[in-house]
Amino acid sequence: MNVDLLPHMFALAAAYGLALPIGWNREKEERSAGIRTFPLVALASCGLIQATERLTADDPEAMARIIEGLITGMGFIGGGAILRLKDSVRGTATAASLWVTGAIGVAAGVGSFDVALVLSATTVMTLWLLTPLKKLTNADPKDE
């Protein structure tokens, strides 16, 4: 049995690290998922890809099915973050962020670190830079 931890550790650490700023943002915004959840989602997604790579090495369709299952699972987890209130729906950004975080883990797991980095950076920029804009557009004129 050949054990080569270094490549796996690098991919797992990259997935964890790239998800951390997303979790930090959600934690600061006091959302249902935060600083612990997001890195764990990326870590699990990456780990599942890496754990099955020997099984799927000669069968790209098998890897595609595993990725498909992860994408579906992320949809279920994200669905749990969405709350429907009387007049509004909350948690859609957190749900979308969880889905992207799963994709970050998958990208790191298959060695597409450039894709994982772009997904993370784009998500962080969207959450941080567009939040003030969202608050402006949702401002109630009666409150001013």
UniProtKB/TrEMBL annotation:
Residues 12-135 form the MgtC/SapB/SrpB/YhiD N-terminal domain. Coiled coil: none annotated. The keyword Ribosomal protein does not apply. It comes from the Bacteria. Its main location: membrane. The keyword rRNA processing does not apply. It is found in: Cell inner membrane; Cell membrane. This is Protein MgtC. Keywords: Cell inner membrane, Cell membrane, Membrane, Transmembrane, Transmembrane helix. It is a multi-pass membrane protein. The chain crosses the membrane at residues 6-24, 33-51, 63-85, 97-130. Belongs to the MgtC/SapB family. It comes from Novosphingobium panipatense.
